[in-house]
Design a protein that fits this description.
A 6-stranded parallel sheet has the order 2-1-3-4-7-8, with helices on both faces. 35% of the residues lie in helices and 15% in strands. The two termini are 20 Å apart. Helix 7 links the parallel strand 7 (185-190) and strand 8 (212-217). It contains 9 helices and 8 strands.
Length: 243
């Protein structure tokens, strides 16, 4: 593979998760001639010892922008998984010159002024706030259950590593400067959806609005864990056929 075709993928991971969750993709991406960078947000994963009530969405956006700048990453394919769509949308807005493409993987796609809670039902918001109050000292959200089709070995591996999510990351609205058009965007919808199917709204938006490419994968919400090979094939297709 020529150096000109090699890509740098940078992950904005989901809630309760961290860089560790992308372990299966590292050797696959490397074997394909690309680079995968998987930073962890403040307060999660190996950075859980930094957790505190003040952590919000801006904290996590700053985490990823810091990696872009310190590693001098450019022409990046930004992968946003789940909650990471909130983070990646902010990153692409504030560091547009470094982002070549933005790939939302079963992820939230906020508009300016929206929080993650704004994109959830009132019942879900109320349930999560009650969980934070009763089980998270008022500021932490306990991890949710993984999809039902997740193999037992993966559940055991991930469950010991998932950490509570600071609730302010779900409450803080995203503020976009809008200094220029967003990068080319793709949406990957995981067809084995949960009953609530919260991500269908964004899949439908990607098919309705101009400026998007739309894809589906036969997997539940965490294909980087349960379907790494099909996910790699789809990512390779997306970057090789970029408009």
């Amino acid at each position: 593979m020529s150096s000109s075709s090699a890509k740098t993928f940078l992950v904005c991971h989901g809630a309760w998760s961290a860089g560790w969750a992308w372990k299966k993709l590292h050797p696959l991406i490397q074997a394909a001639g690309h680079r995968l960078v998987t930073p962890t947000y403040t307060g999660l994963g190996e950075r859980a010892h930094l957790a505190n009530p003040a952590i919000d969405l801006d904290t996590h956006i700053a985490d990823v922008i810091g990696v872009l700048k310190m590693e001098d990453l450019r022409d990046v394919v930004l992968i946003a998984h789940s909650y990471g769509g909130m983070v990646a949308t902010g990153v692409a807005d504030r560091a547009r010159e470094r982002i070549a493409q933005l790939v939302y993987l079963d992820a939230f796609v906020p508009q300016d002024g929206q929080s993650l809670f704004d994109l959830q039902s009132a019942e879900t918001r109320a349930r999560m706030r009650e969980l934070a109050r009763t089980d998270g000292e008022g500021w932490r959200l306990p991890p949710t259950q993984m999809p039902a089709d997740t193999p037992d070995a993966d559940v055991a591996w991930a469950s010991g590593r998932r950490r509570p999510q600071p609730i302010k990351t779900f409450e803080q609205p995203l503020r976009l400067a809008g200094n220029g058009a967003p990068p080319p965007r793709s949406y990957i919808y995981c067809r084995r959806c949960a009953p609530a199917d919260v991500f269908r709204q964004f899949a439908e938006r990607a098919q309705r609005e101009s400026g998007w490419r739309y894809f589906e994968i036969d997997a539940s919400h965490n294909p980087h864990i349960t379907a790494p090979h099909p996910l790699l094939e789809l990512l390779a297709k997306i970057v090789s056929t970029a408009a």
